[in-house]
Design brief:
The chain has 319 residues and is of the alpha/beta class. It is built from 10 helices and 15 strands. The structure holds NADP nicotinamide-adenine-dinucleotide phosphate (NAP).
Length: 319
């Protein structure tokens, strides 16, 4: 079984390699999935570059990938919700970069028939993070005015849509090149951070500020926008305590074991089925090592809005 592995930490072009791996055993609570497509996340490139080696050291060869979709080829004895042949969306702790993965059934859900393979591969990480921020961490109320920084991004664009579906007023920022996209998501007000100062335009207007930018670049702005005693959520890093210009609740969001992926998946798919959630796919690349390298190089720059997906063509060998 072929997989795209990293043989060391380093640059994408130096460390990715195609390996022939032994199929893993399927335990009673597991399923085996033949991957049709997988998605690339900024976190993958942080692991590959070695930035996360202190918090998440890996053993080489290591196969990245949390986001994927495919077809169930084997089910463990205790699995009742899936059968061989079911199309599923999956969110394992690693391993979607390849032809197959074995994962706990609770980290999968059936793929809706009207959802494309590329959309399905795009949804897990960004969707589950956005859902858990709103419904687990914040227990969001519809009266809250929420500012989303990085509203054009994977997480940011899902946050905006879930908030609008919930009835919240949403303020948003992103670059001017993505203004039309973010406005199309239904935000109530938008500022292009490369044209105007969102901190001034939205000063003291948000009960909750969520920094969903890559690398938490907008902390000063975010605190200007947050009301005194408001809530500030960061996906990367919070402003240091001595730099906090307002009192409030400061939350660094990260996935927790008690957040059930199945519950998040259900919420996301129900929003998808009712037309309240669209997943933007930037590009679908062929299922090759060259695509994995290219996708990582792109994600490390300032890519076009939308997810990068690597999708298998039927009956084509991996290269
Ligand atoms: N803690 C967690 O559990 C968790 C989960 C998922 C993701 N994350 C992290 O959250 C971040 C966002 O993830 P993602 O997948 O949504 O990334 P993404 O799709 O690349 O989105 C990045 C966002 O950052 C914005 N941005 C880029 N440069 C900026 C700048 N100089 N100033 C302001 N905004 C800027 C982009 O806006 P423009 O392109 O319009 O400039 C875009 O909206 C990543 O760092 C990721 O690692 C954390």
């Amino acid at each position: 079984m072929k997989r795209f592995a990293m043989k060391d930490y380093g640059k994408a072009e130096d460390v990715f390699t195609l390996i022939d791996a032994q199929p893993r055993e399927v335990k009673s609570e597991h399923i085996r999935v033949a991957i049709e497509a997988f998605g690339i996340n900024p976190y993958d490139s942080q692991v590959r570059s070695g930035l996360m080696r202190e918090v998440q050291p890996v053993k080489f060869p290591y196969v990245l990938g949390h986001d994927g979709t495919g077809v169930v080829t084997e089910v463990g004895d205790e699995v009742t919700e899936f059968k061989v042949g079911d199309a599923v969306i999956i969110y394992p702790i690693s391993g979607t970069y390849g032809e197959e993965v074995v994962l706990p059934a609770k980290k999968a859900i059936k793929r809706p028939e009207n959802m494309s393979i590329a959309e399905a591969a795009a949804i897990p990480t960004v969707g589950i993070a956005a859902y858990n921020i709103l419904y687990q961490e914040l227990k969001i109320k519809k009266e809250a005015v929420v500012m989303i920084q990085g509203a054009s991004g994977g997480v940011g664009s899902v946050l905006v849509q879930l908030l609008k579906a919930n009835g919240n007023q949403v303020l948003a920022s992103a670059s001017s090149r993505n203004a039309e996209f973010v406005k199309s998501l239904g935000v109530d007000a938008f500022v292009a951070y490369d044209k105007e100062d969102a901190g001034k335009v939205f000063s003291n207007r948000a009960d909750i500020v969520i920094d969903a930018t890559k690398g938490s670049r907008t902390a000063k702005n975010g605190m200007e926008i947050m009301k005194e005693m408001g809530t500030y959520v960061a996906l990367n890093s919070l402003p240091e305590e001595d730099k906090r210009t307002k009192q409030g609740t400061y939350i660094y969001f990260q996935p927790k074991k008690e957040y059930a992926d199945r519950e998040a998946f259900k919420g996301l798919l129900s929003a998808y089925e009712t037309g309240q959630l669209n997943i933007k796919v930037a590009e679908v690349l062929p299922f090759t090592l060259a695509s994995v390298v290219r996708a990582h190089q792109e994600i490390e720059g300032h890519p076009t809005a939308g997810k990068l997906i690597i999708q298998k063509e039927k009956n084509v060998e991996m290269a």
